[in-house]
Amino acid sequence: MPTSIAADPHRLLPADPAVRSIARNLLDRVENLPIISPHGHVDASILADDTAFPDPATLLVSPDHYVTRLIHASGVPLEELRVGGTAEVQPRQVWQRFCESWPLFDGTASAYWLRSAFHDVFGLTEELSGANADETFDLIDSKLQEPGFSPRHLFKDFNIEVLATTDDPLDDLSAHASLAADASFAGKVVPTFRPDGYVNIDAPGWADRVEKLITTSADGLSGYGAYIRGLENRRRYFVEHGAVSADHGVRTPQTLKLTTADAEQIFERARRGEGVAGDRDAFEAHMLYEMARMSTQDGLVMTLHPGIFRNHHPGTFERFGGDSGHDIPFPVSFTEGLQPLLADFGTAKDFHLVLFTVDETVYSRELAPLAGFYPSVYIGAPWWFLDAPDAMQRYRAAVTETAGFSRSSGFIDDTRAFCSIPARHDASRRVEASFLARLVAEHRVSEERAHELIVDIVDGAPRRVFKL
Amino acid sequence: MPTSIAADPHRLLPADPAVRSIARNLLDRVENLPIISPHGHVDASILADDTAFPDPATLLVSPDHYVTRLIHASGVPLEELRVGGTAEVQPRQVWQRFCESWPLFDGTASAYWLRSAFHDVFGLTEELSGANADETFDLIDSKLQEPGFSPRHLFKDFNIEVLATTDDPLDDLSAHASLAADASFAGKVVPTFRPDGYVNIDAPGWADRVEKLITTSADGLSGYGAYIRGLENRRRYFVEHGAVSADHGVRTPQTLKLTTADAEQIFERARRGEGVAGDRDAFEAHMLYEMARMSTQDGLVMTLHPGIFRNHHPGTFERFGGDSGHDIPFPVSFTEGLQPLLADFGTAKDFHLVLFTVDETVYSRELAPLAGFYPSVYIGAPWWFLDAPDAMQRYRAAVTETAGFSRSSGFIDDTRAFCSIPARHDASRRVEASFLARLVAEHRVSEERAHELIVDIVDGAPRRVFKL
Amino acid sequence: MPTSIAADPHRLLPADPAVRSIARNLLDRVENLPIISPHGHVDASILADDTAFPDPATLLVSPDHYVTRLIHASGVPLEELRVGGTAEVQPRQVWQRFCESWPLFDGTASAYWLRSAFHDVFGLTEELSGANADETFDLIDSKLQEPGFSPRHLFKDFNIEVLATTDDPLDDLSAHASLAADASFAGKVVPTFRPDGYVNIDAPGWADRVEKLITTSADGLSGYGAYIRGLENRRRYFVEHGAVSADHGVRTPQTLKLTTADAEQIFERARRGEGVAGDRDAFEAHMLYEMARMSTQDGLVMTLHPGIFRNHHPGTFERFGGDSGHDIPFPVSFTEGLQPLLADFGTAKDFHLVLFTVDETVYSRELAPLAGFYPSVYIGAPWWFLDAPDAMQRYRAAVTETAGFSRSSGFIDDTRAFCSIPARHDASRRVEASFLARLVAEHRVSEERAHELIVDIVDGAPRRVFKL
After folding, report:
1. pLDDT exceeds cutoff 60 at A259
2. Hey, which of A201, A405, A446, C22 has its CA 20 to 30 A from A63?
3. Looking at beta carbons, which residues of chain A come within 8 Å of B342?
């Protein structure tokens, strides 16, 4: 009977026997610590409702753009994976396609997460293949019907202590409130304030959202002042419901302090649909500055992840909407863009600014130097395309020599794939153990300190950086 | 007697004994597979004519800008290496210079290729030095006179199955035709359509070449329409002569869909020598778009390698012409530039677009994300300055976690140095085996799958990507 | 009793036993070679005066922005570290803070240097901690009073053969002269010409410095011609006092050959305080070109390190001045910017141009290709944030395959921390041995050649590149 490589206790650890042994000891320290997930995209309602997950394909394939994109690249239309949902293809057919496509994933981070989930959550020991598609579909499907596989049971089994969701500023956060009020649910599920759709004046529906924000949340004010007040009020509402951070997916890391009059003019032009070239970027840059100011007042940690060309393929966007697998990174530089913000708030007491990137060049060039000086700046964990073993090793090697370990954010899973959460955190812990083990083997960090460091990296950092 | 390190069966494999052993087994699978070379710069006529190669210096040193550039950096004028040819220096003197300069190459990719060729092709076991220059010159020179060292013999000994050349659109491809018609030659030598000189309106001689294209190949049409028709016709001629790809060495990866009227205006201004600022880049961007359109119609694989400042040192260019060792890379980004092309052709059936780079930053940031979504996009193998063991390891580590193994082009030797072809492919196979062996040792890929993958990487990918 | 990891003979060497053994043998070759330090920031007067160093905090903490910046990032105001000096905090308090902050430095280059200095220079075997702050302060403080710890004694103990300082063009170099004239001091301390404050027309005090340059050093000339003459004269003065290089910390690597008339206009506008947008960059670009021209005449090696946003946090700059830990790198590209300079001087006889970067992307993309062609161009050693073990490994891996070993500058410590000099050179030698050992283990360089190469890297290169 084939044994999954997901079961090997030394997976992701270095091959050298001596270093592997150091790493394995370090891993032992943190392997069973609870999961702290301060940023992700799981929907709070699945926990509030606690209804059984749907079939394997609808749970694990169709909504996961990490998975569907690579199958799409092999020539399979997204329709056939039920991206966006369709009545013409059945989940079992999607699963068949996925199983046939499984060899595409060799060497990817997704393969690691999925294989771990298959093995650890669903007890699969075989590798997927076209031949066992029906059998594995049925096996996982039947598990998903069992009470032990309900969202709340898995939440507990996964040993999740804190899970942050990502939410629209006008969300009423009722799912969060109901979970908080429910004595039978011991976990902590906190919302995250994500105002992108209210900040990017070119985003479809911006004016309507802003209108609603002003109408509902601006204390009866009007105009730009109401917009700012509305955002401040909604942030306070989020804080009251447990939010610890506000997340910003902007085009570039430019920041700008406009005068109120200038900001108001752009804002009103945009509301009238009369925006001019440059308005979008200027307003976004200004609002990043404003959001930092609000963070210094209400304490929300500010997380920033610029440098993505969203919805690169118009045909796919028109048919399947956003988050359908064709957001593509481009070069980014933080040093000049963030300077206006950091000049005013970089040393502000208790301000936390976590900088994420999918452009690795900024790690040693900018993020480590910035975080190694500004008390507010933390280096975001490798994220999205970079949340993968080799990329995580490169990250540590790039930032540690300048900034040490204390300036990193702690691991972020950033996932909407609930069942992948344990595997993602496990992978991160294994990589951290491997990196530290090499430093120990090279006599750069003492083994004693490495054991303290790995606990701080896994457990201390996310609590400290995200004020948990 | 000193033994060349080129003879060690574990060369380029990882040092760790356990990983080395896995790698060596993987290498065994592919070490003797035929060479598929879908892009390079060997002249088809040397095989068609099959005349003996000249002396060692004229074969191995003077025309190879990888070699001459580093000797030049040490202070030796290119004249003394007979770059461009001269009567004043003899090949034996060039060889003497080269042997004296041999220590400069320690650690370079060129040293690996040359040392392998010396050992494997010519039977040299000593390291070159000023002291053995005469002796090694004579030894190689006498081998080159032997019938077994004719181009066709070596082609067979090298186990080359397919060799692509690079050709001017107006080339009559007679050498290719004569090889195809020759029953005594079993190899496959295919042309590649390289239209740079017809697309860059600032290239010296552009107007003359375009005039000739229109006169000879445009079905009697005139103007911009004739230019497009001429290119389409010549592409078809290449296809009929076995071509599988069109290669584009543009300045940047910008693409642009001009209206026919706008394209025509630029084209006519350029023909009159009245081009204005921006015309060159706009026309090149537009023609990349047009070439992609043609590829979707005639099936030629489109290969793209932007980001090079050609002929950086004017004094050297004036004296020795192009390809004399001072083409220098600059930063490049594909995400925004390619968007217009990919918006229209990115999911076109059977369209293949292979993206090469000498700016490593795009591997994880752009190429893996693009190729991991668009069915048309393939990540070109590490090329030119990056065709080297460590750089190839970085490439795999940068792209695989996002795009797996299926989205890479397969190895490209891109060489005009015929005798280096086996060593280049051998080096690539060794690096692929080493990379996979690490993944196996870290339990990220099963050993069974690794054995399938390496065959696909070495043999399957180039056939599939280049439609061979 | 705890033993410092700084004492391990295999520190920084690879973990694999076979590779480590090769590396250790290579290290044996160079471990005791004299230190050649062709670029740094130690003040010549400390050696000329040879007065005892002050207390541990004032020697090792307050002036070292590598150290204070990371403590600052943890929330400690720079005042409390006596950055810039203050009467309100005592050195012993600074030392206490530093010792409490010591765990922040795990994994950083600074930790390696400091731990080595503590162990090797001051005989500390314990790790610092808040608990032993007083004890370690006293121990180091008492050592610093001993005659054996005077600057000149340490200079000799450190086995420094040549030490270059960095000096203002109008410095009278009396400390250098006095050391040169002192028969009791065997070391060589040479000045370096650093004209940034005379070239950047926006630098505070530029006009006054230029006025003084013209008044004192321009042979009675006036205007732009006097400025150029003054710089030429001061360079000659530096050459006469032993200088071998001129160092340029410019914003970007742009170079430009202005006409004398155009340069004169910008120069005079700047003197009148009437500069316009673009003047600063154009003049700096022009002056880089001029400085290269001067180097071809007076032989000073030209070193260049662009790409830093100086004094990123205005509040800190206003209070503590420059070099207070918030200079942050940004992206840089040399290929196009340097082209005008290299077109005219790139192949000039005996011209040496050493290119430093803190943007690692240029190593393989630009620096290795440039240095692998131009006889004048050398790749500067990993510098500043990149002067660290992993970064140094990345550097070698990025440049060697294209440019070999002969085109690198040799190690540069660039430090104002005198006691860290041996540890910095030791770290570099260990990394070079490790890199070469891997190439030997992978049969890419013969062991025999590796032994020659490491001597050339450590001892030959700095002498050759800096004309020592």
Report:
1. yes
2. A201
3. 312-313
Complete DSSP assignment for C206-226: HHHHHHHHHHHHSTT--HHHH
The answer to whether B397 faces chain A, any CB pair under 8 Å, is: yes
Dist. CA B226–CA B198, nearest whole Å:
13
> Is there a contact between C340 and C256 (Cβ–Cβ < 8 Å)?
yes
- B328 touching chain C per CB within 8 A: yes
Query: What is the Cα–Cα distance from C98 to C81, expressed in whole angstroms?
Result: 8
Residues in A touching B453 (Cβ below 8 Å): 106-107
Share of chain C above pLDDT 90, in %: 97
Query: For residues A203 and A251, what is the distance between their CA atoms, to the nearest angstrom?
Result: 12
Provide the shortest C-alpha distance from residue A198 to chain B (in Å): 25
Measured between CA atoms, how close is A238 to chain B, in angstroms? Answer: 33
C52-149: CATH topology = uronate isomerase, domain 2, chain A (1.10.2020)
Alpha-carbon gap, residue C215 to B422, rounded angstroms: 67
Query: In whole angstroms, what is the distance from residue C407 CA to residue C384 CA?
Result: 20
Nearest to A359 among B347, B365, B438 (CB): B365
B402 with A385: Cβ contact below 8 A: yes
**Nearest CA to CA, how far is A158 from chain B (Å)?**
22
Q: Is C445 on the interface with B (CB under 8 A)?
A: yes
Contact A5 B443 (CB under 8 A): yes
Predicted pLDDT at C449: 97
Per the CB < 8 A criterion, the answer to whether C200 and C207 are in contact is: no
CATH topology of domain A53-149: uronate isomerase, domain 2, chain A (1.10.2020)
Cβ within 8 Å of residue A133, ≥6 positions away: A95, A96, A98, A99, A100
CA–CA min distance B189, chain C (Å): 30
Q: What is the ipTM of this complex?
A: 0.97
User: B54-149 has which fold?
Assistant: uronate isomerase, domain 2, chain A (1.10.2020)
Q: What angle do CA A244, A247, A249 make, to 5 degrees?
A: 175
**Identity of the residue in A16, A342, A438 whose CB atom sits nearest the CB atom of C312:** A342
In chain B, what residues touch A64 (CB-CB under 8 Å)? none
Domain ranges of chain A: 53-149, 151-465
Q: Fold for B159-465, please state it.
A: TIM Barrel (3.20.20)
What residues of chain C, 240 to 269, have a C-beta less than 8 Å from chain B?
none
Task: List per-residue pLDDT tens for chain B, 468 residues long.
Answer: 456 889 899 999 999 999 999 999 999 999 999 999 999 999 999 999 999 999 999 999 999 999 999 999 999 999 999 998 877 899 999 999 999 999 999 999 999 999 999 999 999 989 999 999 999 999 999 999 999 999 999 999 999 999 999 999 999 999 999 999 999 999 999 999 999 999 999 999 999 999 999 999 999 999 999 999 999 999 999 999 999 999 999 999 999 999 999 999 999 999 999 999 999 999 999 999 999 999 999 999 999 999 999 999 999 999 999 999 999 999 999 999 999 999 999 999 999 999 999 999 999 999 999 999 999 999 999 999 999 999 999 999 999 999 999 999 999 999 999 999 999 999 999 999 999 999 999 999 999 999 999 999 999 999 999 999
Domain C151-465 falls in which CATH fold? Answer: TIM Barrel (3.20.20)
Q: Which long-range contacts (CB under 8 A, 24 or more apart) does C183-187 make?
A: C185/C47, C185/C152, C186/C156, C187/C47, C187/C152, C187/C155, C187/C156, C187/C160, C187/C161, C187/C162, C187/C163
The reply to whether A125 touches chain B by the CB within 8 Å rule is no
CA–CA distance, B330 with A333 (Å, rounded to integer) = 17
Domains C52-149 and C151-465 share a fold: no
